[in-house]
Amino acid sequence: MPELPEVETTKASLTPLIGKTINDIYLSGCRLRELVPDDLDEMVGATFVRAVRRAKYLILSFDKDGQMLDLLIHLGMSGSLQQHPNTTPRKHDHVIFGFGDVRLHYHDPRRFGMVMWAKDGQRYLDKLGVEPLDDAFDVKYLLKFTQKTQKPIKTLIMEQSVVVGVGNIYAVESLFLSGIHPATPANTLSQDKLAMLVENIKMILARSIEQGGSTLKDFTVGAGKTGYFQQTLLAYGRADKPCVNCQEPLQNIKIGGRASVFCPICQPLT
What we know:
alpha+beta, N-terminal domain of MutM-like DNA repair proteins, Helicase, Ruva Protein, domain 3, four-stranded antiparallel sheet, 10 strands
């Protein structure tokens, strides 16, 4: 699933389209997680103004004769926004915005994503917590949540109502670097440990953004380019392989239905 760094990378890839005008729109007619609005053709003649990321959502803004038209896009499990020269729609291309000689394809094989008017999708944004790279996400903020729950710390930091965009890959990596077992009850962690975890979440996400995100399964960006952060993963996807610190084989448990790889020596459950 595209996570925060992948969505941030997608946002950056849209920069060359700013100032360009939509001259045609293609709709596949397939249902995504939400119905694609049947009046998207209103955007023909609109000029792309900006792209903003909020959590794993993109808000694309267009100006049409002084009226702002805002789209909310979520990439779901397998979605991507790709720019290609004028070509015929491919399988799984569900929305295509024509910008002259460049076409922006919303491509989603599993169809769990969304393309909708932002005003209709505001209910999704209203439930979101803080951005992990903002100053508001600090140890004092996280402590307010950990003190109230015995949930596994991995479950807590992946809750979008607490902090957005810390998906499974980045949760596993941040906990590994912090020496915290993913099943540790949140309310048992010291303030020092939480401070280390916050620092590592910020560092891991920033580093992933710099490297274009992680390419796992279906995710691509721009003109089908892939990210490179997956080549630096220390724990995620490395079950049974030796820990880079102590050489003990990494173990895998399921927490909340998600794979949680950890080192039993470096991340003891205390």
